[in-house]
Amino acid sequence: MLSSFITMRCLALGLFCLLCCNAAQTYRRRPRPITARSNTTFPIKAVENPCKAIPLDFVFVIDSSRSIRPNDYEKVKTFIINLLQFLKIGYNATRVGLLQYGSVVQPEFSLSTYTTKSEVEKAVRNMEHLATGTMTGLAIQYTMDTAFTEEHGARPMNLHIPRIAMIVTDGRPQDTVEEIAAQARQAGIQIFAIGVGRVDMNTLRAIGSEPHSEHVHLVANFSQIETLISVFQSKLCGGSDMCEVVDHQCQHICVSSPASYRCKCREGYILNPDGKTCTAEDTCAVVDHGCEHICANLPRGYECRCRPGYQLTIDLKTCNRIDHCDLGNHGCEHNCVTVPESYICTCKRGYVLNLDGKTCSKIDHCADGTHGCEQEFMSTEDSCVCKCRKGYTLRPDGKTCQSLDLCQTVHHGCEHQCVSTNDSYICRCFEGFMLAEDGKSCKKPECSEGVMDLVFVIDGSKSLGPNNFELVKQFVNSIVDSLDISKMGTHVGLLQYSTKVRTEFTLGQYSTAQHIKSAVNRMQYMGRGSMTGSALRHMFESSFSTKEGGRFNIPRVSIVFTDGRSQDDVSEWATKAKNSGITIYALGVGKAIEQELREIASEPDEKHLYYAEDFEKMAEITKKLKSRICADKPSDENMCQCENMIMFQNQVTEKLKSLVQNNILLCSLHSY
Predict the structure, then answer these.
(1) Known Gene3D superfamilies for this protein (predicted)?
(2) pLDDT tens digits along 438-482
(3) Do 56-239 and 453-632 have matching folds?
(4) Architecture category of domain 56-239 in CATH
(5) pTM to 2 decimals?
(6) Could you read off the pLDDT of 367-377 as tens digits, one per residue?
(7) Which CATH class is domain 453-632?
C-alpha cells in the first residue's frame, strides 16, 4: 500500500517537471516585442513567426492629430511593427496598407504597394506626424471607398479574403462616424477600434464591429498599447478556424475571419435576416418544379400556375384548357371569345355590340370601303369622313391630302434657315452662327474669333446635391453657347470627378455646340467624395493628349469648378498643368476654399479666379468668365506655318478646278 502511494507521487512529480520544461521552451520561442525609442530606429530581432495566419487584406488607419505627442507617435509605429511580426506578408498571403489622418487623409501605402514585411516596416518607420485635426469619419470613408478597392490592391469579394481595418485614435472625432462606420461594416469590412487615453467609449463602439468584446479596446496611454500585442496575436494568427470550433449553424457556407465568422450562401441564393439560412433568389430555377405552364416564386417556395384560358388540375402541376364557348349555347350573334373565367361576345369589324351583350349593329360607315379617302378615314355617327396623317392637310375635295410645310406657306422671318415641325416651325443658323434671342436672326458667338482646346473639370461630389448639379450643367452650356464650336474652331471636353474621375466626353468627340450641350444634359451625377487633385492630374496627363483630340499649337484652357475642400492635394498637379502651358480658370461656390482656388488658378488671380457665395449667384461669375475668355481669346495669327501652307494649297487647288471648268486653262495650254 505504501509503495503504491510512493509510486504515484513520483509519477505526479515527473509530469509536473515535464509541463514546466515545455512551458519554458514555449516562452523561449515567443517573439519578443519591439520597444519604442526616442528616435525612429526600431531594432528588430529575427524570430520565427509561430503563426499559421490566414490571408488577410489588412489596412491600418492611424490618428495623426496634433494631440498626439511625438514620443507617443513613435510608440504607435512600434505597436504596428510588433503587430506585423504575427502576419505572413506577401502577394498571396496577407496584404498590408496604411493611411494616417488629421484634418485630411494621407495614404502612406496601399494593399498593392509592398509584398515583403521588411518593405512595410521601412515605410512605417519613415512616416511623418501630420499634427492637424481629427477627421475620423473622413478616414473611414476613404478606407471604404478607396483603400479596399481592387484598384488599390484588395482582392475580389468572391475569394472570401477577410478585409480588416484597425483604427487607432486618441481623441473625439471632429466629424460624425456612426453612419459611415456602419456602411463600412455592411460592405464587409471588419473593424478593430483601439482607443488611447480619454476616448469616448460610445464612439469606439460606434466604429468597431460586433461583438465589441473582440473588436473594441481602450488603454489608458500610449505606453500601454503594447499590452494589446498578445491580444491581437491570438486573433490574427489564425490558430483556430472559427467555423470549425463554433456551432455556426450556417445553412450553406461559413467564412472565418479573425475573432469572428459570417455565413454566406451559394450562388443563386440570398442570406435570410437570421444571418444563417438561405433562400433561393429564383426557386423555380433551382428545383425540378414540374409545372406544365408557369412556375411562380413565393416568399417560401413556389407554386404552379396556368396560362389564361386554362385551369390547374388536381395534381397542382398540369393544366387543362377552359373553353367556355364550347360548353353550351353562348348566343353570340358574331363571335364568342373565351376569357379565363367565362366568355364574351364580340362583333365583326364595322359593327358594335348591343346592350344585350350578344347581338351586333352596324355603325362603321367606312366599313364598306367606298369612302375614297387617300390616307385615313373615321366613322362618325352619321357618315364616313376622310383624315390626313401628321404633316399633311385635307384638300377642299375632302378626300385627298397635301403636304403641310409651314416654312413654305407662312412668312417665317428666319434669317438663315426655316425647318418645319409637325405643328409649327423653328429657325436655325448656318454653322459658325448661333440663334439670337428673338429666335429668328443669327449672330456670331461672343468668342467667334478665338480657337482653343477647352476642358471643363466639374465637381460632382455629394455636397453639391442633384439640384445644384443641374445648375452647373446650365453654367457649362452657357459657356459653350458663347464659343465658336466647329471642326476648325474651338473644341470642348469635360471631366466629372468625385472620389473617382470620369471622362464625360473628349476634345475630339463632338464638333457642334448642339452635340456638346446634349452630352452635358445626359451627364449622371456621381455624388460621392471630392478628389480635385486626381481630377487635375487626369486633365494634365490625358485630356489634352492627341489620343483624346488635343491639337498641336492650339491654346489649351481648362475651367475647374468646385464647391468645397478637396480630399487630396491640388497644388502639385495644378502647378504641372500651368507650367506645361495650360491656362486654368478656377470657379468656387459656397464652401470652396480660397487657398485651394489660388493654387489651382493661373496668374494673375483677378483674371483667373472667380467665387460666388451660393449657386443662385452663379450667373454673375458666368457673365464675368465669358467676358474674360473672350477678352483673352487666342488670335488666328498663332496658327502654325504648316497649317497656313495647307490652307494655301487648298486655295490654289480650288482656283485650278475653277479654271479647268471655264476652259481657261485649256485655252492657255493650246495657245502655248
Answers:
(1) 1.20.5.30, Laminin, von Willebrand factor, type A domain
(2) 888 887 666 656 789 999 999 999 988 999 999 999 999 988 988
(3) yes
(4) 3-Layer(aba) Sandwich (3.40)
(5) 0.38
(6) 777 888 988 98
(7) alpha beta
